[in-house]
Amino acid sequence: MKLKSRWMVVMLAAIVLALAIPASADDRPVIQQIKERGVLRVGFDTFVPWAMKDKNGEYIGFEIDVARKLAEDLGVKAEFVPTKWDGIIPALLTGKFDVIIGGMGITEERKKKVDFTDPYEYSGMSIFANKKLAQGFHSLEAFNKPNVILAVKLGTTAATAAAKFMPKAEKRQFGDEAQAAQEVLNGRAHAMVASAPMPAHTVYKHKDKLFLPLADTFTKEPIGMALRPGDKATLDTLNAWIKKAEAEGFLKARMDYWFGTMDWESQLK
Amino acid sequence: MTSHNKVNPLDGILLVAILAGAAFVAYRISDQLEYTWNWSVIPQYLFRYDAGRGGYVANLLMLGLYTTIRLSIWSTLLACLIGLTMGLFRISGSLFLRLIGRTYVEAIRNLPPLVLIFIFYFFVSDQIIPVLGVDALERPGSSFAENALTFLFAPPGQISGFLSAVITLALYEGAYITEIVRAGIESVDRRQWEAAYALGLSRPQQIRHVILPQALPRIIPPLTGQFISAIKDSSIVSVISIQELTYQGQQLVATTYMIFEVWITVAVLYFALTFLCSMAAQRVERLMMARAG
To answer: Looking at CA atoms only, how far is residue A176 from chain B in angstroms?
Structure first.
């Protein structure tokens, strides 16, 4: 009996020790690991039309095209790791994937935790509003009032932009864009802030209930790929690729398709 | 017995009141909600026609349901192992082991599962998964190995996430199974221990040959109930992006904006699964009762 429990103690101690020794972290540049593995692991979350699943369960969207082309040019396979947006940076830092290619806006706050590549696209914040509640609202000031309710997706730069440009308005944060949009449709929020072209698409679908208070976007945000910090070799490779993709017109062509047209909509439903 | 099964006027009134209440809620929803229902597109998210194979194959939601089932089965199996070990610790003669068992149960049961999942996924899985050598499984050489792994666990590339989820859920469910095991063992008459002792059996022998065979029929019915809990609890791991039913539902809502159709479908799928299991659990329970006489 005594002997047995002593064995147990030894075993438990061994388990605790195994847990305490950090896994031997791979210190080589991510780009080298990607090439050895033959797989580029890409983190992203669903944002229409940046990245989404079509009705066959395949990933499609602007970011997906970018990631596929990047992988192809690196001579590896792209593997997509869908990850909830509010946990995407911790997931990158703990090595669940190699890079975030998911329309992530470059912000000072995020730069403290991750390294960004040069911007490969620009997005802007736009707003759509409920016709009844926000009648006659045609400027950001009109929405910047304490009794105005704004819906946004949690952890996005839309949430930051709403807080910055309409600090007095009340913000309601949702895990999904669909829920936030539904809140405006149901008249429980005055308006929703999101990256263009989502607001324009939503208004197009519900012309009788919604409208676009501003003709244009009210911010211009650079979008970059995010890497674990301190990996200069990988950062340089990705920056060189972005330069090349821009020069070849690849990025512009994909942007025109995903953000300038709605041709892809039939792939969803 | 028959008088209990008769319908009396009060039942009729209650039924009418419930129906009226449901109709009122339905009216409010259709009247107040600015929502265009579109059920016709939902079936294709369950099964889709694959031109390449010339037949129907499972799509997003069914794939999610399969993952939920795999997740529940594996985590319950692992939880049974943890539960049995910790349950034996809880009734052990050694104070040290009793303390470990008690600490485990109290720590887990007093934490919200969501918090546990975050801690485990972001801190612990990084330590355990590499030790287990799962990385090799991520990229199997042959397509047979890949198919087998996909069928049993998850597609390559999702295996380490899947295992983290299984381990976390198992740790969580294990605490409840520990208590089920402990209660089962403690329900065995004290004199059974004494009789086994009098026969000259050592304590492990007493447990193995006398106590556990009697405790098991009392442990199994609540265990089947715990499996149903595991199915429901598995939806929590959607927060760490494990592609089970709830996660697939969230993703589908994010792409199609069909909030209500998708969530109602997801609810029906969960219900179908848990209801089937609870029917089976009732059967098992009756069987055990009949056996016990």
So the answer is: 6
